[in-house]
Amino acid sequence: MSQPFDLCPDHPEPTKAKTTAPASLKKKRKVGESSTNTASVQHLRPGLVLLKGFVKPEDQVEIVRTCRQLGIGPGGFYRPNFKNGAKMKLWMMCLGKNWDPTTGFYGPTRPCDGAQVPAIPELGLHQDKDESGRSINQGLPIISISLGDTAEFLFGDTRDKDRATKINLESGDVLILGGRSRLLFHGISHVKPNTAPTWLKEETGLRPGRINLTFRQY
């Protein structure tokens, strides 16, 4: 049995009394690091909205800790397989329903190990179209929260990366894809090392890399 994937391997597990960030967290932020107190709204195109710095620092810390606890538990983080059997680079965990990247199907358990999906408390340019027809036809949005290192995000009307628009998704950013932008081709071109906020790494012991939380209605 493989060891659980721990997002914060060098950090002690938070006690029940330390489930929220300390009041001194704001003082720990270095001058020049992005503050989430003044989030800006960027309308990139109809239905595609970027909320810069929307998630407050203390909430980012709490989300990382929650993901860590879920990830090391039953049905936690695992590396999905490609159709040829090779494993993907990313570690994934689903809540509510499992999404199988090889089939595009949703279900209550993971086919790879039969694990029950916990209840809700390298990809190229792609479309998110495995949800129900009603969800897609109504343009119900996909909401993505970025934590950790900055990622370069691409989006466009085709799979052509050279013609895609590029933006940076930083820790605390929220991206909404809905309406006319619901089926945009999109993806991460690369993650920029050592760009996570210092205070987030100090408070959580987060590994290098990026956490992406995606919310969608099946």
From TrEMBL:
Cofactor: Fe(2+)
Region called Disordered, residue ranges: 1-39
Cofactor note: Binds 1 Fe(2+) ion per subunit.
InterPro entries assigned to the protein according to its UniProt record, in alphabetical order: Alkb, AlkB-like, AlkB-like_sf, Oxoglu/Fe-dep_dioxygenase_dom
GO biological process: oxidative RNA demethylation
Protein origin, superkingdom: Eukaryota
Binding site for Fe cation: 126, 128, 186
An example Gene Ontology CC term for this record: cytoplasm
UniProtKB keywords: Dioxygenase, Iron, Metal-binding, Oxidoreductase
Gene Ontology molecular function terms on file: broad specificity oxidative DNA demethylase activity; ferrous iron binding; oxidative RNA demethylase activity
Coiled-coil ranges from the UniProt annotation: none
Family to which the UniProt record says this protein belongs: Belongs to the alkB family.
Name recorded for this polypeptide: Fe2OG dioxygenase domain-containing protein
Originating species: Paspalum vaginatum (seashore paspalum)
